């Protein structure tokens, strides 16, 4: 099955109520949250593993999605 780029974008937008960029970002943040809870990796290692290049951007977007910073997310899960 082949789709044009614009058709793919429209299908993702209609099924996720998100842009393709937002959809990919949310997948990366979800993967990072999982790694924070299940590995001893440093934040920098996790950011690299999920394919984000800017630490400040990652922290800002993580906080926007999860309402806490990544370090707090990890600590709260341990308690």
Automatic annotation (TrEMBL):
A GO term for molecular function: DNA-binding transcription factor activity
Domain of life: Bacteria
Keywords: DNA-binding, Transcription, Transcription regulation
Gene3D superfamilies: Homeodomain-like
The keyword Transcription appears for this protein: yes
Boundaries of every HTH araC/xylS-type domain copy: 1-76
PROSITE patterns in the cross-refs: HTH_ARAC_FAMILY_2 (PS01124)
Signal peptide (residue range): none
Protein known as: AraC family transcriptional regulator
The species this protein was found in: Flammeovirga pectinis
